[in-house]
Amino acid sequence: MLKAVVGLQFGDEGKGKFVDYLSGNINNIARFNGGANAGHCVQYGNVRGSFSQLPASLNKKNLYICQGALISLPVLVKEIDFIKNENINSSIFIDPRCHVVLPLHAELNKASEKYKGKNKIGSVGVGVGACVEDKSNRHGIRLIDTLDKEKLRSKLAFLWGIREKQINYVFNEQVKLDFEEMLETTHQYGKRIEPYFTFTNEAIGNLLDHGDDILLETSQATFLDNSFGTYPYTVAYQTLVQTCFAMIGIPAQKMHIVGVMKAYMIRVGNGPFPTELQTEQADYIRERGNEYGTVSKRPRRCGWLDLCLIKHAVRLNGVTEIAITNVDVLAGIDEIKVAIAYEIDGEIIGSDKALLQLDKVKPIYKTFKCWGELKESYENLAELPCELVDFLNYIQEYAGVPIKYISHGPDRAQTLIA
Ligand code: GDP
């Protein structure tokens, strides 16, 4: 059966921790979307890994990178070296049809952001968006295309010809890359990855036929979805979990979906954020939660939990249970607010409509008493402070699905099962 982890907010909910945690009993983990624009941090004891290409696990597993994932070759190679150096002897399978994010794409993303000026998306500038454009325009470079250097030269030259003109004449910038160097490094990295090439649709289809479990890791999160998120402040592709079927290349089927959410909201980059805090409470959350981007290191915008969005994300993805993280971060704050409805000009509006004008909505809040500092570890739920239990009960009732996991620290061991 497919078991998936999906983010219910704007990303960085702690999905990596839950992929690692849930992978305890599952031997196969697959990634099917996104690229090095999203990083997942995982910690177990003294080992801390940051993954943006390989599925996030510090356990020995079968790791699949499926067709919809976008590959930054140096980052992938670094992550493969990391797990090998840590003696995590996972087996790795990579679909040769994955598209490659080139240094040229990074330059394009940066030039396009500069061109957009104050309307910029706030992209991390890795190049994933430009890579997706080339994929749709049918002149992208797939992993399989990197192996034959002369064929790669001709494909890259075509792409370079188009994109260099765009950078020079549309964006008024200069390409700072060397074509021959990009060709050579792309070819060399491709050769290094070649031993892992596998048609992952077949591999995963076979596992499902045998009744094996596969854990799916969704990169980014619901409200960065290109269609149902806060467009245009989104990524360039869809992030809803059900896109996995097309991105892996398997038929739609029933799956178990864990929605991961933080006990508050954060957002990196631009875009509307109704519950954003501009007060010292935001600094409190940011410092205690170490809310700085894994990839970009940018300070994250922080705000109160928005249950309108959480409930909407639960329904959009078909979430079956929730994992809530970072309840330790809020501890000690005087009072906690949670958005439970949206209003525009005195009228209550639903989430679909609100998402089209999220910069205009006024959140209506419910206030909760906060809990005191949490302990390092807990044996069971009964030990949790009653204020925290009230907060959790309200969330699961509002969202309409149970909270199954409560994470009160970054370590794998700091997780309670409800
Ligand atoms: P992801 O992209 O959704 O995997 O999230 P990130 O890795 O960007 O951010 C999650 C961060 O929060 C990581 O640094 C985790 O180690 C950390 N983290 C996860 N769960 C908890 C928790 O319950 N409490 C605290 N304080 N940190 C957590």
Mind sketching the topology for me?
Blueprint: E1 2-7, H1 15-22, E2 28-31, E3 40-44, E4 47-51, E5 62-65, E6 70-71, H2 73-85, E7 91-94, E8 99-100, H3 103-116, H4 128-136, H5 149-170, H6 179-193, H7 200-209, E9 214-221, H8 244-248, E10 255-262, E11 265-267, H9 280-288, E12 301-303, E13 305-306, H10 307-317, E14 321-325, H11 327-330, E15 335-344, E16 347-349, H12 351-355, E17 362-369, H13 386-399, E18 403-407, E19 415-417
Parallel strand pairs: 1-9, 1-10, 2-5, 2-9, 5-7, 6-8, 10-14, 13-15, 14-18
Antiparallel strand pairs: 3-4, 11-12, 15-16, 15-17, 18-19
Helix pairs in contact: 3-4, 3-5, 5-6
Residues 7, 11-17, 38-41, 43, 289, 294, 325-326, 328-329, 407-410 line the site of guanosine-5'-diphosphate.
Write a compact overview of the structure shown.
This protein folds into three domains: 2-96 and 197-258, 3-Layer(aba) Sandwich (Adenylosuccinate Synthetase, Chain A, domain 1); 99-193, Adenylosuccinate Synthetase, subunit A, domain 2 (Orthogonal Bundle); 261-417, Adenylosuccinate Synthetase, subunit A, domain 3 (Adenylosuccinate Synthetase, Chain A, domain 3, Alpha-Beta Complex), CATH 3.90.170.
